[in-house]
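User: Hi! I have a protein structure encoded as tokens and I'd like to know what sequence might fold into it. I'm fairly new to this, so please keep things simple.
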């Protein structure tokens, strides 16, 4: 894999209308993908571009705490899939009735179907004992790694590559499968591949699991509770029902703690 991918970097610091539209387009058309993976291999230079985009995320104190374990071998994917199956069986037991049936029908991973899996880790000791900006909020290294993952997700979408984040895994067991050292934290397990189709909306929305919260219910003016929209009481967790555009049979309530959607 080339370590110097050919990435276009514009010269004058301005974005044209077309470029700006492309940025928003990739944000809105990014999807978590678990199906429709094609066998088409991801070329090394494309993967290098995506990983380099991830590596250009912001990080606390410029810590760059991430590493990427790139998995192509089927035996490794199979071992991780087994971990998923075990954890998912336990996760399914949290739900009852129609919700349990719906949960079991969800496709929540594409580990073996995706040509490449990537485990993203966070090395919490990188940068030494005192990382600039991290003394008060220790978890800023984790936040930084999530920024890298989002870059990876968006760059992949721009390349026509789907990414599915699988969090229904025992990270301790996965570290043993992948030989990840004890102090290094697993942040994400991602399935990557070209796909035949990107859905227009989240799968969980189309199956009626949960709907998108209108953004104006989440924007507070100066202090908590003064919604920009002037509607609601500022606590989106208490908003009871979401319009589900008629697709879900259930009337969706906000899922309280302990009834979280997968992941
Ligand atoms: C931290 C994180 C963990 C996730 N874990 C899973 C998972 O284990 N299985 C799954 O099917 N989707 C998982 N997802 C995907 C979410 O379900 C998805 O992002 C959400 O439904 C919105 O859909 P979208 O990404 O297509 O916009 C995860 C997403 C995030 C950010």
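Assistant: Happy to help. Inverse folding works backwards from shape to sequence: for each of the 263 positions I chose a residue that suits the local structure. Here it is:
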């Amino acid at each position: 894999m080339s370590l110097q991918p050919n990435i276009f970097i514009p010269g004058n610091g301005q974005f044209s209308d077309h470029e700006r539209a492309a940025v928003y387009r990739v944000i809105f058309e990014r999807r978590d993908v678990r199906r429709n993976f094609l066998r088409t291999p991801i070329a090394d230079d494309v993967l290098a571009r995506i990983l380099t985009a991830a590596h250009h995320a912001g990080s606390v104190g410029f810590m760059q705490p991430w590493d990427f374990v790139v998995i192509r071998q089927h035996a490794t994917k199979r071992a991780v899939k087994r971990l998923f199956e075990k954890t998912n069986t336990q996760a399914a037991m949290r739900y009852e009735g129609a919700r349990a049936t719906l949960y079991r029908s969800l496709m929540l991973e594409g580990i073996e179907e995706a040509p490449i899996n990537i485990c993203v880790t966070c090395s919490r000791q990188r940068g030494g004992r005192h990382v600039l900006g991290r003394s008060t909020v220790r978890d800023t290294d984790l936040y930084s790694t999530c920024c890298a993952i989002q870059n990876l997700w968006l760059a992949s979408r721009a390349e026509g590559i789907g990414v599915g984040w699988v969090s229904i895994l025992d990270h301790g067991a996965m570290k043993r499968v992948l030989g990840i050292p004890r102090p290094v934290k697993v942040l994400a397990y991602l399935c990557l591949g070209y796909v035949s189709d990107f859905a227009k909306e989240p799968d969980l929305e189309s199956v009626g699991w949960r709907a998108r919260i209108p953004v104006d219910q989440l924007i507070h003016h100066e202090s908590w509770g003064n919604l920009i929209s002037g509607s609601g009481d500022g606590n989106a967790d208490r908003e009871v029902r979401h319009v589900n555009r008629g697709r879900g049979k259930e009337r969706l309530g906000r899922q309280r703690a302990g009834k979280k959607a997968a992941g």
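A useful reference point when you look it over: Residues 31-32, 34, 108-109, 165-168, 202, 204, 262-263 surround flavin mononucleotide (CB under 6 Å). Feel free to ask if any position seems puzzling.
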